[in-house]
Amino acid sequence: MSRHEDRVRLCHMLNHSREAVTLVQGKRRADLDSERILNLALVRLIEIVGEAASRVSAEARSGHPEIPWQEIMSMRNRLIHGYDAVDMDILWQTLQQDLPPLITALERIVGPEEE
Fold first, then answer.
1. 81 is catalytic
2. How far from 85 is each of 10, 28, 43, 65, 92, CA to CA, in Å?
3. Residue 110 and residue 52: Cα distance in Å, rounded?
């Protein structure tokens, strides 16, 4: 995989993480239970972050140990394969606690203005 392709995947991770965080601004945990479209959108965004992470080359992943690659890819697998048993508390925790530092780390790698 080329450096360009890695950069594209990292940008996908960054942009979809940002979108997920933006969607939950002003929301509460209970909104995941009551707003079906929000729930579906957030699950899909996190799936995409995990899929993009899995497509980053092993070399690039090893060059950025500050990114929790395995956890991100595992979350994607749990959401895809356990679609019928998604733990919304874990999803909410991911959105609130894990994505903001991931965004910061990705911005350091690809730059804050990447689209």
1. yes
2. 28, 20, 12, 30, 14
3. 14
Q: How far apart are CA 72 and CA 3, in angstroms?
A: 20
pLDDT tens per residue across span 78-112: 999 988 889 999 999 999 999 999 999 999 999 87
Cα dist from 40 to 57, 60, 87, whole Å:
28, 30, 13
| Whether 108 is catalytic | no
* 108: region left, alpha or beta (phi > 0 left; psi from -120 to 50 alpha): alpha
| CA–CA dist 14, 36 (Å, integer) | 24
- Among candidate residues 16, 18, 76, 78, the one labeled active-site is 76
pLDDT digits (tens, 9 = 90+) for 36-45: 999 999 999 9
pTM for the model: 0.93
